[in-house]
Amino acid sequence: YGSSLYVNVSQLKWLPEQFYLFPFKAVECLFSEAVKPTFSDTVRLTFKQLVLNKRLRATVYDRDNNHICVLLKCKTDEGTVNVYRYLRAHEHKSKNGRMLDDGAIVQCLHNTIFNTSNSSYQSSICNKSMNTSISLTLPILSPPSPIKLTRDQIEMRRKEIKRIYKEPLDENNNTMLSSESNGNLSM
C-alpha cells in the first residue's frame, strides 16, 4: 500500500482470481537490496541448493525496466531467511581468507530479517556487503500496471505519512495508536 505504514480494513481489496493462475512458476527478478550482478558460480550453486524443491515467498518492492525487484524469503532448518543476505553471508570471507562456516553464517543471520529484536545491530553486520545482485534467468512475466491514484488520494496519503512521522513512539519504536487514527490500525 505504497509508503503508508497502515491501511484501513475497508481499503483492502481481494486479489483478482486471474493472478492466482499465472502461466509460469517463476518470473525474472532481481534482489531489491542489490546493485549489480557479480555472484560467483559457487554462490549460484549455493542458491540452487538452498531453493531446490522449496516454495519461496517474494515481496515485490520495485520494478526496474523489465525486472521485478523482490525480497526473497526461504524456510530452512534455522528458520526463515532472507535469500540475498544468506548468499552474501556465504560469500563473505573471514579475516583468514576462509569462507565462513554455516554456524557463523547462521549467527550473522540470526534476528536480522524477520525478528525485530536487535535488528539494527545485526543488520549493520550483514549490510556491509550488500552492493551486488543476482539476476535469475527465468521466463519473464510483466507485472500488472501500477495503480493510478487521484491527486486527492495522493495528498491524503502524504498527510497520513506526515502524521505518522509526528506520532509518538513506544519503547519498541512502534507508532502508538492515537485517537486521530479513525479506526485505522497502526504498526
From TrEMBL:
Q: Which Gene3D superfamilies match?
A: 2.40.50.90
Protein name stated in the entry: Uncharacterized protein
**Organism placement in taxonomy:** Eukaryota, Metazoa, Spiralia, Gnathifera, Rotifera
InterPro entries per the UniProt record, alphabetical: SNase_OB-fold_sf
